[in-house]
Write a sequence for this structure.
């Protein structure tokens, strides 16, 4: 098992941006100096434009000493000797979710002393007769007292270390889950970071934690935020195309084969992931025909993307065989997918978008089939946060309607009158639609279809 740590540390590289002024000095930057995330991002943007940016690559093979590896392994082995559960735990599970000294792409600093200081006299009270779920709840409750989520964390230049997060007391979901996983592991609880990289019903994605119980069940929770009984990230209303569990070792099957780094979608940059979508949501296997004749012959890999923050974001890949691609374990909660290729940072359509529904054996393609002489729309911007949110236009709003035909094509502009309706003429039927306003930011706008005059949101 010690060899497992030594072998895999050589593959882990953490990237840290540094802003360098004209005199060669590093300009310190902390998003917590600003009132809001937007203020922090604006300031960071100005700094990046006016100065040089240097990316430092911290390889674990250089940053993590053999002495630390030995010390860390000894501490974990001691916990193992004290626990019947850990001694009987599957070897691979132990190596991936108890033994590792890091949980993700966080900067490495020896955190043992910090954890001992923070939890001194606390975890020792939980003897071996206490169930793992009760230990995990107690540790997470303690972390909730120490840490809290801070939106400004999304303007950081790198993923901070466990020590840095505990010192500052705030962090992003990435930071909180990394600290939580390492704390749980350090005290002998198998723990993982699970992730939906891109939602299919709203912007961004999310990370949370899961721990393994004595009966082999992975229990999800929000590290330093919500205990298992309070976990509500995945519900009937959320749309998760894929959920991946982070591993310590590289999983070669996670990345599409024979794809160079330039043509590798961001979600597959880090290969230490395994697919656990089926553990959370209903899934389907989908076989699609690749239809982009201009690229089909030269492409070996196809992707499925979902609409997220005004763009198509890739979530899954499959190899193309005989002009078809079979995608396994895709979330099927009324999710709209776009078959596509990925070329030099760009998503290129490879077929019509389709809806994957839980109650149907096959997917439903979204295709233009006729024209509406005119349509009346009543609302915009429907997405799920803690509830489905909807907006209604006001008189004077200027709004443009688009339909999808391998790109977003304008159907025209409507200036809202006193009846508050959005009226558009000569609109293709059966399409996928998107509304954009000239009066507000469009980041949260959601796609929709029209059925019997009603907007159906995705």
């Amino acid at each position: 098992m010690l060899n497992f740590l030594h072998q895999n540390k050589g593959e882990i590289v953490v990237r840290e941006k540094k802003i360098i002024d004209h005199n060669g000095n590093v300009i310190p930057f902390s998003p917590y100096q600003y009132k809001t995330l937007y203020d922090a991002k604006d300031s960071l943007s100005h700094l990046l434009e006016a100065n040089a940016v240097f990316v430092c690559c911290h390889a674990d093979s250089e940053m993590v000493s053999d002495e630390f590896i030995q010390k860390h392994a000894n501490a974990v082995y001691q916990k193992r000797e004290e626990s019947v559960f850990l001694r009987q735990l599957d070897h691979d599970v132990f190596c991936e979710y108890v033994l590792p000294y890091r949980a993700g792409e966080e900067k490495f600093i020896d955190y043992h002393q910090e954890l001992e200081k923070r939890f001194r006299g606390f975890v020792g009270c939980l003897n071996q007769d206490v169930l793992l779920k009760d230990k995990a709840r107690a540790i997470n409750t303690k972390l909730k007292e120490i840490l809290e989520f801070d939106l400004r964390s999304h303007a950081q230049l790198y993923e901070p270390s466990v020590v840095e997060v505990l010192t500052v007391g705030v962090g992003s979901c990435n930071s909180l889950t990394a600290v939580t996983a390492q704390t749980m592991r350090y005290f002998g609880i198998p723990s993982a970071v699970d992730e939906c990289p891109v939602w299919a019903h709203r912007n961004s994605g999310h990370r949370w934690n899961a721990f393994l119980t004595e009966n082999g069940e992975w229990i999800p929770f929000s590290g330093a935020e919500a205990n298992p009984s309070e976990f509500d990230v995945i519900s009937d209303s959320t749309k998760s195309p894929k959920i991946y569990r982070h591993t310590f070792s590289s999983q070669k099957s996670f990345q599409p084969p024979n794809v160079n780094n330039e043509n590798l979608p961001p979600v597959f940059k880090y290969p230490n992931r395994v697919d656990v979508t089926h553990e959370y949501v209903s899934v389907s296997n989908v076989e699609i025909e690749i239809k982009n004749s201009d690229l089909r012959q030269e492409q070996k890999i196809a992707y499925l993307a979902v609409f997220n923050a005004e763009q198509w974001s890739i979530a899954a890949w499959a190899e193309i065989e005989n002009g078809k691609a079979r995608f396994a374990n895709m979330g099927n909660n009324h999710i709209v997918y776009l078959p596509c290729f990925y070329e030099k940072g760009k998503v290129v359509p490879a077929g019509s978008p389709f809806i994957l529904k839980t109650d149907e054996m096959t997917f439903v393609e979204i295709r233009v089939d006729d024209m509406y002489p005119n349509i009346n729309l009543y609302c915009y911007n429907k997405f799920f946060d803690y509830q489905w949110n909807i907006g209604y236009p006001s008189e004077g709003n200027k709004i443009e309607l688009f339909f999808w035909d391998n790109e977003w094509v304008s159907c025209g502009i409507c200036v809202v009158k006193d009846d508050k309706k959005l009226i558009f003429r000569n609109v293709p039927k059966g399409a996928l639609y998107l509304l954009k306003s000239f009066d507000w930011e469009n980041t949260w706008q959601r796609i929709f279809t029209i059925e019997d005059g009603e907007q159906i949101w995705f």
